[in-house]
C-alpha cells in the first residue's frame, strides 16, 4: 500500500530493470477519481495506459522511466510523480541488523538476526549465572550420556534412541518447549527449561550407582514380607527399569508426566516427611525442606538413645532405664512436632519480633493513618502460646511416659494388654469417627432424611447468635482427646517395647543399628500421625491386627513393622478409593452431561479401556498424581505429581483501591469499581472468620470427618467459597479459601441450586412415586445421593459475616421532593459538623475566611448560581432568583442554634453572627460543588447521581472563585463538607422508615451522633473501607457505581455485621484435583481459549463448573484467593471451655497465686463469720459467683469498642497466657481504626474515649474492692457508682459534652455534679451494654495495684420493676459495693440499699 492507499506491484529482471504490474495499474486507474475517460483527448490510444510501465530498481528505490506520451493530460498527482520520476517503496524494508558473537577476544562473528527472529530460535538468558548453569548442565548431560554408552547399556537401535534423548535434553537448554505440558503458567516459564537435563542427570546417576552397587554386592540384603531388597538381582532390576525410563523421555515429557524441578523437589520432600517421619503437608519448597530437616534432626537425636537402650541388657521383667528415657523423649518430641506448622515464617516472625522489635515497627512505606493488620500479631500470639504450653506439657509427658515405661507394664501384661488396647482403640475410633459423624450428617447413611444429632440452629429459619455448644460436640472432643493422648500413645509404646525387647534379646542375630533406626523413625511417625489425624488410625490399626494375627500370621514381621507399613499403604488405598469413586461418578451413563460434541464422541470410546483406566488409577494413587478428564470428557489420563496444596504458584488476590492506583486513574476511570473487586472484601472477611474458628469447629466435629487435602464448599445466599484444607496438625489447620462470583454464570447457578435444594420431599421409586417411610429417603433420592462426588456435611454452620443489602439510588431520588430532602439533610449535616468541630473558634477568627465571607453579610447579597433550583433547595428565594442569607436563616437558623447549644462552649449565634455566616458559606460551597460535579444539571437524575457519587468518593472540584476561601484550611472540606454529603445519604435512607421523626432537632442530632459512633460511611475504594470490615465494624454504608454489561446504575450498599448460616458441602478431593489438573492442561498446554468450552459446563454430580471456576486466574475466575492461612485451636472459646486453656508457666504461676489468695481469704472468712471457702470473695479467686448460666463468648464486637483511643486499660487479648476470663481474640477486640476513618467527625473519637474511660473506671472500681462474700454477693455484671468530683479521671468538659448528648436519648435521668445523665437498661454479658454506658460519670479510685484478679463486666443495678437505679456514692467510699437485689443473700446489706 502506498501513501495514498494505492496498491502497487513490480516485476524485476536479473539486471535490475522491470515494469509495474499492469493488472494493479488497471485497478489503480479504475479506483482513481481524478482519471476519467473525459479527460483523454479524442483518438488517444487509451489502452496503452494499461501496458507495462518500465521501472528500474536502484538501491532501495524504484525509479519510473518517463513515458513518451505528452498528449496525456493526467491529474496533478500523476504530473508530480512524473516530474520527480521517483517512487519510494511503501512497505520499506527494515534496516539490516546483526549481533556480534564474540568467539575470541577481538574476534567476533555477525549473527544477522533481529530480536524477534533470534527469540524464535533461542531462549533469552537474562543473567550470566543462567548461561553458566546451562553450559555446566549441558556438559554434565554429555558426560553422563557418554559414560552410559561406554558401559554398554544400549545396543542396536537403542543407541540411536539414547542419543536422541541426549540431544533433546541439550537442545532444551537452547530453545525450550513453551508452553510445556507440565508448565503451570502461561507465557515463558524459565524453570521448565531445566527439567529435561536435570531429570536426565538424575536418572543416569542412579543407573550408574545401581549398576555399580549390583556388581559389587557390598550392600547387605534383607527380606521383608517375602521380598528381598538390596540384593544384586534387585539392584540390577531397578537399573534396567531406570534405563527403560530414560529411553521413554520423549513420550514422558510429551504427556507431561514429570513436573518442573522445584515442584518435584517439593513433592519428594513432602512425601518423605509425611510417609516416613509422619509430618504434615507443606506450603512451599522452603517449608518442605525445613520440615524434613527438622524431622531428621529429631530422629537423629532419638536414634542415639534407642541404640544405647537396645545394646543394654534386657531381662525377662526388666526395662533398661535408657529405653524409658527414649520413650519419654520420643513422646514429648513427637507431641511438640505435631503442634508446629511446617511453615517456618510465623515462627521466624515471632523470633524477629522478640529479638528485633525495631524491625517490626519500621514500615516507612505505609502511611501513618493505616491501621495495623491484626492477623500477624494474632498468629504470633498463638505460636507463642503453643510454645509456652509445650514447655510444660512436653516435660510432663516425658516424666509420665518414663514412669510408665519403667514400671514394666508393657512387658508384664503381655499379650493381653495388646489385644485390650487394640479393641479399645477400635471401639472408640468406630464411635468417634464413624458413628457420631454419621448421626450428625444431613442424610445419615444416605437413608435417613434428617440428622439424628441436630444442632440447636438446625430448626431456626435465621441464625441470630453464635452456634451453641451441644453435648455430643463435647463428647466428640473428649473422645478425640482420650484417643490422641492416651490410647494411641499406649499402643505405640507397647509396640516399641515389644520390638526393642525382641531386638535386644537377639541383637547378635539382627542388625541392631538398622533396627534402632527403624524403631526411632517408626515410633515418631506413628505418634505424630495419631496426634495430627486420628480419624483414620483406627481402620489401619484394626486391619493390621486382624490381618496379621488372624488371617495371615505367617506373613507378619513384627507388629511395629506391620503397623508402620500398613499406615503408608492405607494412605495410598484411601487415595485410590477416592479416585475410583470420582471416575465412576463422573462417567455414570445415567447422569453424564455432555458439554460439547467431543464429550459425546469420547463417551463410547472410554468404555473398552476400563482396564487401562484402573491401571492409571493405581499408578496415580502410588505417586499422588491427579487423574484428570481430557477436555472434561469421559477419557481420563494421569497428570504429573503435585503437592497437597496443588498449585505451584502462590497466587493471591490483590484488591484494587485508592491505595494502589493513581489519583487521576481512580477519579476518571475508577478501575476498581467492578463488582468482583468490591465484593472480594467479603471473602477476605470470611477468611478471617475461618482463621478464628475453623480449627476449633473441626475438632468439635461440625464439618464431619476431615483429612489432609480435603475440599469443602461453603454456600450461603450470595457467598460461595471453596475451602481447601492443606495442613492438619495437632491444634492447627492451614487452609486456603477461593471465593466465587456473587452473580455467577448460568452453570454455576444450576450447581448452587443442586447443593442447596433438599431431597427429603422426593417420593420416587424408579418410574413411580409410591412415597417413602417417615423420616426416610425415597429409593430414587437414596440412589441419587450415592452417585454424587459431594455430600452435605452441615446445613447450619454459623460464621460471623456481613449481610449485604442494596437499594437502587435512582428509585430513591427519582422525584424532586426526594432530592430536596437529600439536599436539606446535606445542609444540616454540614451545619452539624461545623458546630462539632474543635477548630470552630479558629475558623471564626481567621481573617482570610472572614474577609472572603464578608460580602455575604450585605443586606442585598444573593447567590444566583445556576446550580440552585427551586425544586431541590428548601431555602431558595424565587423573588431573588437565588439563595440569600435571610432565606437560609429562615430555614436553618433553628438548627444552627440547637447545634451550637450542644457544644461544650457555645459561641455567639445571631442571624448576622460569624457562625451563621460561616455555615451559609459552607452550605453554598457544598451545594455548588455538587452542581459542579453534576455539570450544572442537577435537575436531571443521571447527572445528579453522578455528582453525588463524585462527592461521596471525595472528588471535590472547586471551580468558582467565590469558593476559594475554603483552601485556607483543608479541614473545612475533609472534616465538614465531605462527611456531610455521606451522612446525608444515611439520613435520607432513614427518612423512608420514619419520615417525620427527624423534624425534631434533638432526634436528628442524636441520630447523626449515633451514626457517627456505630457506622462507617465511606466509598468502597477508600482503604478505610477494607480496614473497617476487617476490624469488624458493626455497620457500613457506601454508594456504588456499577458499570458492567451495558448497565450504568448507582446502588446504596448497606452492610450489617451478623451471624451467617452456611451449608457445608464436602467434595471428593480427587474430583477437585482432577478437574483442576484438567483445566490447567487444557488452557495452558492445549491453549483452548473458548469461554464456552465443554469442560466448564455444569455437571451437578461433580460440581464441575464451581470447581473449575475456583482455579487460579487466568485458568479460573475466582474473585478472591486467600493466602495460605493457619487457624489455631487456642482461639476457639468454646473448645477452651471443653478442654481448658493452655498449661503454660505463666498460667500455672497465676493459678497458684490466685488459689493461695482465695484460700487465705476463705480461711479468714470462715474463721470470722463461719462461712466457707466457696462463699469467699471472688476478687481474689479465679471464678466469679453468679447464678447466671455460663455464656460462651462469641465473635461479635460492640460498636463503640472499635475506634479505641490509646488509653491504658486492663484488657486480656487472644494468645496471651492470661487465665482471668475467656480468651478474647481478633473478632472480640478488633484493632483501632485509622485516623482517616475517625476523620468523619470528632464526635466518634470523643464517644470512643468516653466508653474506654468508663470501662477503665469500672475495672479499677472492681479491682479496688476487697470484700468477702460474708459482706457482699457479687453478680456477673456490676458497675461502680459515681464518685466525688475531686477524684475524676477525665476532664469535666468531655463528660459534660458526652453526658448532654446521651441524656437526650434516655428515659430515666440522673442528676450529678456535671449535668443530667440517663442510664440504659441492663443487657447481657457480651452485649453492647458493656460499652454503651455513656450515662455513667467516668471516675476512678486511685489505689495501689491489687493482685491479679479476674476481670468482670459491669452494668447497673435494677429494681424488680426493671428500672435503673443510681447508687449512693458513699457506699463505695465506705468500702461496700453495690449488689443487685434479686441476687443478694445478705439481709442487712439489702436493707441498707433500700
From TrEMBL:
Polar residues bias spans: 1183-1226
InterPro entries for the chain: Pecanex, Pecanex_C
Comp. bias regions, Low complexity: 30-40
Keyword GTP-binding: no
Compositionally biased intervals (Basic and acidic residues): 1379-1394
Pfam families per record: Pecanex_C (PF05041)
Membrane topology: Multi-pass membrane protein
Keywords noted in UniProt: Membrane, Transmembrane, Transmembrane helix
Transmembrane segments: 132-151, 157-177, 189-210, 230-258, 292-311, 317-337, 391-413, 419-436
Subcellular location: Membrane
The keyword Zinc-finger belongs to this UniProt entry's keyword annotation: no
Chief localization: membrane
Signal peptide: none
Region named Disordered: 1-40, 1177-1229, 1340-1394
Stretches assigned to the Pecanex C-terminal domain: 910-1133
Family per record: Belongs to the pecanex family.
Protein's UniProt name: Pecanex-like protein
The encoding gene: PCNX3
Amino acid at each position: 500500500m502506498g501513501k495514498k492507499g494505492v496498491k502497487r506491484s513490480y516485476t524485476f529482471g536479473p539486471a535490475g530493470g522491470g515494469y509495474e504490474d499492469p493488472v494493479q495499474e488497471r485497478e489503480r486507474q479504475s479506483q482513481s477519481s481524478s482519471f476519467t475517460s473525459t479527460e483523454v483527448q479524442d483518438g488517444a490510444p487509451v489502452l496503452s495506459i494499461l501496458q507495462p510501465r518500465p521501472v528500474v530498481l536502484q538501491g532501495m528505490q524504484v525509479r519510473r522511466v518517463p513515458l513518451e506520451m505528452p498528449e496525456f493530460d493526467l491529474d496533478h498527482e500523476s504530473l508530480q510523480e512524473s516530474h520527480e520520476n521517483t517512487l519510494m517503496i511503501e512497505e520499506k524494508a527494515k534496516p539490516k541488523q546483526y549481533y556480534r558473537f564474540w568467539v575470541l577476544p577481538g574476534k567476533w562473528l555477525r549473527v544477522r538476526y533481529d530480536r524477534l527472529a533470534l527469540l524464535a530460535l533461542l531462549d533469552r538468558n537474562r543473567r550470566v549465572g543462567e548461561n553458566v548453569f546451562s553450559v555446566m548442565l549441558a556438559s554434565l548431560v554429555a558426560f553422563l550420556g557418554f559414560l552410559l554408552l561406554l558401559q554398554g547399556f544400549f545396543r542396536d537401535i537403542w543407541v540411536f534412541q539414547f542419543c536422541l534423548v541426549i540431544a533433546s535434553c541439550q537442545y532444551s537448554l537452547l530453545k525450550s518447549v513453551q508452553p510445556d505440558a507440565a508448565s503451570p503458567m502461561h507465557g515463558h516459564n524459565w524453570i521448565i527449561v531445566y527439567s529435561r537435563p536435570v531429570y536426565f542427570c538424575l536418572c543416569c546417576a542412579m543407573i550408574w550407582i545401581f549398576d555399580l552397587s549390583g556388581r559389587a554386592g557390598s550392600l547387605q540384603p534383607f527380606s521383608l514380607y517375602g521380598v528381598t531388597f538390596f540384593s544384586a538381582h534387585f539392584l540390577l532390576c531397578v537399573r534396567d527399569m531406570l534405563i527403560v525410563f530414560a529411553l521413554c523421555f520423549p513420550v514422558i515429557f510429551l504427556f507431561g508426566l514429570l513436573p518442573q524441578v522445584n515442584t518435584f523437589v517439593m513433592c519428594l520432600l513432602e512425601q518423605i516427611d509425611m510417609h516416613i517421619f509422619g509430618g504434615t503437608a507443606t506450603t512451599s519448597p522452603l517449608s518442605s525442606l525445613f520440615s524434613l530437616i527438622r524431622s531428621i534432626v529429631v530422629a537423629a537425636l532419638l536414634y542415639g538413645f534407642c541404640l544405647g537402650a537396645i545394646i543394654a541388657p534386657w531381662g525377662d521383667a526388666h526395662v533398661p532405664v535408657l529405653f524409658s528415657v527414649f520413650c519419654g523423649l520420643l513422646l514429648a518430641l513427637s507431641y511438640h512436632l505435631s503442634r508446629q506448622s511446617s511453615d517456618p515464617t510465623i515462627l521466624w516472625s515471632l523470633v524477629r519480633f522478640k529479638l528485633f522489635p525495631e524491625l517490626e515497627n519500621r514500615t516507612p512505606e505505609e502511611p501513618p493513618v493505616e491501621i495495623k493488620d491484626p492477623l500477624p500479631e494474632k498468629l504470633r500470639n498463638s505460636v507463642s502460646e503453643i510454645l509456652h504450653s509445650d514447655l510444660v506439657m512436653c516435660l510432663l509427658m516425658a516424666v509420665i511416659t518414663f514412669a510408665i515405661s519403667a514400671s514394666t507394664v508393657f512387658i508384664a501384661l503381655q499379650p493381653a494388654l495388646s489385644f485390650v488396647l487394640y479393641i479399645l482403640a477400635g471401639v472408640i475410633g468406630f464411635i468417634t469417627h464413624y458413628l457420631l459423624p454419621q448421626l450428625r450428617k444431613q442424610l445419615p447413611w444416605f437413608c435417613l432424611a434428617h440428622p439424628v444429632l441436630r444442632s440447636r440452629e438446625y430448626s431456626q429459619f435465621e441464625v441470630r447468635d453464635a452456634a451453641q455448644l451441644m453435648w455430643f460436640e463435647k463428647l466428640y472432643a473428649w473422645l478425640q482427646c482420650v484417643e490422641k493422648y492416651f490410647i494411641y500413645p499406649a499402643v505405640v509404646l507397647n509396640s516399641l517395647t515389644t520390638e526393642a525387647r525382641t531386638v535386644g534379646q537377639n541383637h547378635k542375630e539382627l542388625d541392631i543399628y538398622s533396627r534402632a533406626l527403624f524403631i526411632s523413625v517408626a515410633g515418631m511417625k506413628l505418634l505424630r500421625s495419631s496426634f495430627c489425624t486420628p480419624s483414620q488410625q483406627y481402620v489401619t490399626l484394626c486391619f493390621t491386627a486382624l490381618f496379621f494375627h488372624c488371617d495371615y500370621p505367617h506373613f507378619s514381621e513384627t507388629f511395629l513393622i506391620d503397623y508402620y507399613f500398613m499406615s503408608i499403604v492405607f494412605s495410598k488405598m484411601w487415595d485410590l478409593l477416592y479416585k475410583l469413586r470420582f471416575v465412576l461418578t463422573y462417567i455414570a451413563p445415567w447422569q453424564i452431561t455432555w458439554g460439547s460434541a467431543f464429550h459425546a464422541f469420547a463417551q463410547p470410546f472410554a468404555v473398552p479401556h476400563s482396564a487401562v483406566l484402573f491401571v492409571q488409577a493405581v499408578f496415580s494413587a502410588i505417586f499422588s498424581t491427579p487423574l484428570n478428564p481430557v477436555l472434561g470428557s469421559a477419557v481420563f489420563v494421569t497428570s504429573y505429581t503435585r503437592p497437597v496444596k496443588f498449585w505451584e504458584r502462590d497466587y493471591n488476590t490483590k484488591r484494587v483501591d485508592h491505595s494502589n492506583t493513581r489519583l487521576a486513574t481512580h477519579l476518571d476511570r475508577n478501575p476498581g469499581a467492578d463488582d468482583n473487586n468490591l465484593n472480594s472484601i467479603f471473602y477476605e472477611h470470611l477468611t478471617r472468620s475461618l482463621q478464628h474458628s475453623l480449627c476449633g469447629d473441626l475438632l468439635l466435629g461440625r464439618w464431619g470427618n476431615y483429612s489432609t487435602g480435603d475440599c469443602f464448599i461453603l454456600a450461603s445466599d450470595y457467598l460461595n467459597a471453596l475451602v481447601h484444607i492443606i495442613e492438619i496438625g495437632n491444634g492447627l489447620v492451614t487452609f486456603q479459601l477461593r471465593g466465587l462470583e456473587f452473580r455467577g454464570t448460568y452453570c454455576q447457578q444450576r450447581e448452587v441450586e443442586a447443593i442447596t435444594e433438599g431431597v427429603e420431599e422426593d417420593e420416587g421409586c424408579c418410574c413411580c412415586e409410591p412415597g417413602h417411610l417417615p423420616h426416610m429417603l425415597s429409593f430414587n433420592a437414596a440412589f441419587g445421593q450415592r452417585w454424587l462426588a459431594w455430600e452435605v456435611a452441615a446445613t447450619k454452620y454459623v460464621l460471623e459475616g456481613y449481610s449485604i443489602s442494596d437499594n437502587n439510588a435512582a428509585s430513591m431520588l427519582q422525584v424532586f421532593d426526594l432530592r430536596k430532602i437529600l439536599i436539606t439533610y446535606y445542609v444540616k449535616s454540614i451545619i452539624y459538623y461545623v458546630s462539632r468541630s474543635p477548630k470552630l473558634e479558629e475558623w471564626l477568627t481567621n481573617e482570610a475566611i472572614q474577609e472572603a465571607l464578608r460580602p455575604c453579610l450585605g443586606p442585598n447579597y444573593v447567590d444566583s448560581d445556576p446550580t440552585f433550583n427551586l425544586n431541590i433547595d428548601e431555602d431558595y428565594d424565587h423573588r431573588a432568583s437565588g439563595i440569600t442569607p435571610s432565606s437560609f436563616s429562615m430555614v436553618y437558623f433553628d438548627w444552627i442554634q440547637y447545634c451550637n447549644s450542644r457544644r461544650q462552649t457555645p459561641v455567639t449565634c445571631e442571624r448576622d453572627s460569624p457562625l451563621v455566616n460561616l455555615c451559609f458559606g459552607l452550605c453554598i460551597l457544598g451545594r455548588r460543588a455538587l452542581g459542579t460535579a453534576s455539570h450544572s444539571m442537577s435537575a436531571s437524575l443521571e447527572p445528579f447521581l453522578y455528582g453525588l457519587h463524585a462527592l461521596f468518593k471525595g472528588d471535590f472540584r472547586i471551580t468558582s472563585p467565590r469558593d476559594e476561601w475554603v483552601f485556607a484550611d483543608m479541614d473545612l472540606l475533609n472534616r465538614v463538607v465531605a462527611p456531610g454529603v455521606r451522612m446525608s445519604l444515611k439520613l435520607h435512607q432513614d427518612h423512608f422508615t420514619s419520615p417525620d421523626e427527624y423534624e425534631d432537632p434533638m432526634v436528628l442530632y442524636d441520630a447523626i451522633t449515633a451514626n457517627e459512633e456505630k457506622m462507617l460511611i465511606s466509598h468502597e475504594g477508600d482503604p478505610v473501607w477494607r480496614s473497617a470490615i476487617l476490624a469488624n465494624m458493626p455497620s457500613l454504608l457506601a454508594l456504588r457505581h456499577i458499570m458492567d454489561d451495558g448497565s450504568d446504575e448507582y446502588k446504596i450498599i448497606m452492610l450489617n455485621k451478623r451471624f451467617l448460616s452456611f451449608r457445608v458441602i464436602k467434595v471428593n478431593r480427587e474430583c477437585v484435583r482432577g478437574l483442576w489438573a484438567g483445566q490447567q492442561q487444557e488452557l495452558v498446554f492445549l491453549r483452548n481459549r473458548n469461554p464456552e468450552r465443554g469442560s466448564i459446563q455444569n455437571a451437578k454430580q461433580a460440581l464441575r463448573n464451581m470447581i473449575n471456576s475456583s482455579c487460579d486466574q487466568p485458568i479460573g475466575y475466582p474473585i478472591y484467593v486467600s493466602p495460605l492461612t493457619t487457624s489455631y485451636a487456642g482461639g476457639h472459646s468454646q473448645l477452651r471451655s471443653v478442654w481448658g486453656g493452655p498449661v503454660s508457666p505463666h498460667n500455672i504461676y497465676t493459678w497458684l497465686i490466685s488459689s493461695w489468695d482465695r484460700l487465705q481469704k476463705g480461711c479468714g472468712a470462715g474463721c470470722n463469720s463461719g462461712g466457707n471457702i466457696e462463699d469467699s470473695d471472688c476478687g481474689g479467686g479465679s471464678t466469679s459467683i453468679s447464678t447466671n448460666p455460663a455464656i460462651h463468648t462469641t465473635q461479635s464486637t460492640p460498636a463503640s469498642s472499635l475506634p479505641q483511643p490509646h488509653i491504658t486499660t486492663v484488657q486480656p487479648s487472644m494468645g496471651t497466657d492470661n487465665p482471668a476470663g475467656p480468651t478474647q481474640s481478633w473478632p472480640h477486640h478488633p484493632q483501632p481504626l485509622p485516623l482517616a476513618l475517625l476523620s468523619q467527625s470528632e464526635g466518634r473519637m470523643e464517644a470512643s474515649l468516653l466508653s474506654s474511660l468508663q470501662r477503665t473506671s469500672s475495672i479499677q472500681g472492681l479491682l479496688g474492692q476487697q470484700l468477702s462474700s460474708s459482706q457482699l454477693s457479687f453478680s456477673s455484671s456490676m458497675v461502680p457508682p459515681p464518685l466525688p468530683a475531686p477524684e475524676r479521671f477525665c476532664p469535666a468538659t468531655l463528660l459534660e459534652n458526652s453526658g448532654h448528648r446521651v441524656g437526650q436519648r434516655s428515659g430515666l435521668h440522673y442528676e450529678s455534679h456535671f449535668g443530667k445523665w440517663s442510664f440504659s437498661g441492663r443487657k447481657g454479658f457480651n452485649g453492647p451494654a458493656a460499652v454503651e454506658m455513656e450515662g455513667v460519670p467516668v471516675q476512678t479510685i486511685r489505689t495501689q495495684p491489687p493482685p491479679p484478679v479476674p476481670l468482670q463486666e459491669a452494668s447497673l443495678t435494677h429494681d424488680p420493676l426493671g428500672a435503673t437505679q443510681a447508687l449512693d456514692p458513699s457506699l463505695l467510699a465506705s468500702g461496700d459495693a453495690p449488689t443487685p437485689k434479686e441476687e443478694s443473700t445478705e439481709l442487712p446489706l439489702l436493707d441498707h440499699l433500700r
